[in-house]
């Protein structure tokens, strides 16, 4: 299914017809299940201060040096619909909950699963279907509509495992949890595959209104399936086809990922950081590979709101004053290193400064400035040109509507 004008128009009309509220649209009670409808529409704009590479090219043909290739379109910007997510949810009968989500922009299924809450406890359940894996980052497990920055961190986008079909068991309480899952391929055809398992544990020894301290750890191990694994990072701009940092591995067997995370909220301030490391087992005389990365970020709610906490992730609250909205300032340092021995995937460091405005209950506007530094010891070959480093600066904007 491709995104059409009719599809998007239907989503927007349904949302506009809904009351101005943060919650989903209640549809009906069917078979004892309270059915509701949610949606998320995002449009992004990027403007590049190009160094050597034409990141504004509309296709992967931009993977050529602009001075020697006709593939570059001469533009230093990109603008496109980023997401068009349509989600049906159901509560009941009994302790059963279900969700059916689809991204009409990316033509893929989102969460498609059924959950059974044991004893009615929302943090003690069994889940079957497609869902975000517990081996993903804290940032990935948080709600997409409340991303702190336009682009998620490099470890989330490069080392994190996306949604997969599987079975999951979670046991915990309001301030701690343990999760284990076994998974296979992604539900959408020709997407991610390779079976594996994931574990995550977290604990919030301090968990009260406006005062939260959270720590957690995760482990994921998976088969690389086709005996090949490609780890690569965009320059902190999600829709860019070019990846300067790129480790293309063959003769791979299994890959494991270890992550640690920490979160601190005090009133209108939130500090968050994560580290992730991957180890890839290879055969046929090829050396094993290791790569890692981390980020540290800080958010300040200028209008005084704080954050909530649910199921081991932070929750962004509604504006205290809907007309004024919720204003945030954010700063993040991010790094990833995909060079190990003979595999020269490169290294990327970036600093992102941003401002977010949540207006009323259904709108969000974001503006980021990103300074990126990328290096590869062996150089990055584009056409007949070798580029030892590339350091673009990016201005990113996002308009978001959700219900």
Automatic annotation (TrEMBL):
UniProt keyword annotation of Heme present: no
InterPro entries, alphabetized: Porin_dom_sf, Porin_O/P
Domain of life per record: Bacteria
Keyword Signal annotated: yes
Keywords for the protein's UniProt record, in alphabetical order: Signal
Signal sequence bounds: 1-23
A family per Pfam: Porin_O_P
Organism annotation: Pseudoxanthomonas helianthi
Protein name per its UniProtKB record: Porin
């Amino acid at each position: 299914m491709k995104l059409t004008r009719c599809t998007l128009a239907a989503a927007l009309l349904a949302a506009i017809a809904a009351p101005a509220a943060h919650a989903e649209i209640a549809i009906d009670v069917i078979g004892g299940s309270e059915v509701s409808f949610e949606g998320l529409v995002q449009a992004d704009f990027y403007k590049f201060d190009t160094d050597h590479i034409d990141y504004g090219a509309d296709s992967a043909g931009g993977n050529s040096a602009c001075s020697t290739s006709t593939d570059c379109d001469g533009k230093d910007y990109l603008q496109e619909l980023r997401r068009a997510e349509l989600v049906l949810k159901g509560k009941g009968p009994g302790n059963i909950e279900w969700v059916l989500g689809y991204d009409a922009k990316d033509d893929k299924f989102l969460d498609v699963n059924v959950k059974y809450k044991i004893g009615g406890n929302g943090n003690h359940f069994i889940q079957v279907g497609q869902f975000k894996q517990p081996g993903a980052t804290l940032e990935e497990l948080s709600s997409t509509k409340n991303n702190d920055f336009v682009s998620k961190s490099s470890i989330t986008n490069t080392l994190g495992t996306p949604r997969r079909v599987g079975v999951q068991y979670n046991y915990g309480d309001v301030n701690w949890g343990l999760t284990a899952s076994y998974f296979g391929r992604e539900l959408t055809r020709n997407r991610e595959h390779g079976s594996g398992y994931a574990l995550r544990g977290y604990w919030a020894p301090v968990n009260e209104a406006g005062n939260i301290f959270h720590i957690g750890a995760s482990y994921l191990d998976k088969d690389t399936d086709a005996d090949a694994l490609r780890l690569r990072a965009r320059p902190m701009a999600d829709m860019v086809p070019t990846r300067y940092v790129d480790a293309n591995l063959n003769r791979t067997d299994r890959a494991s990922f270890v992550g640690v995370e920490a979160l601190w909220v005090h009133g209108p301030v939130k500090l968050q950081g994560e580290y992730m490391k991957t180890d890839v087992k290879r055969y046929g005389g090829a050396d094993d590979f290791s790569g890692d990365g981390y980020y540290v970020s800080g958010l300040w709610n200028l209008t005084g709101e704080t954050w909530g906490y649910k199921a081991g992730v932070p929750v962004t609250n509604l504006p205290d004053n809907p007309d004024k909205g919720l204003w945030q300032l954010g700063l993040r340092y991010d790094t990833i290193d995909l060079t190990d021995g003979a595999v020269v995937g490169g290294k990327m460091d970036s600093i992102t400064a941003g401002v977010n405005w949540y207006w009323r209950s259904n709108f969000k506007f974001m503006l980021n400035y990103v300074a990126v530094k990328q290096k590869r010891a062996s150089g990055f070959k584009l056409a007949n040109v070798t580029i030892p480093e590339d350091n673009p600066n990016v201005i990113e904007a996002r308009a978001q509507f959700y219900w």
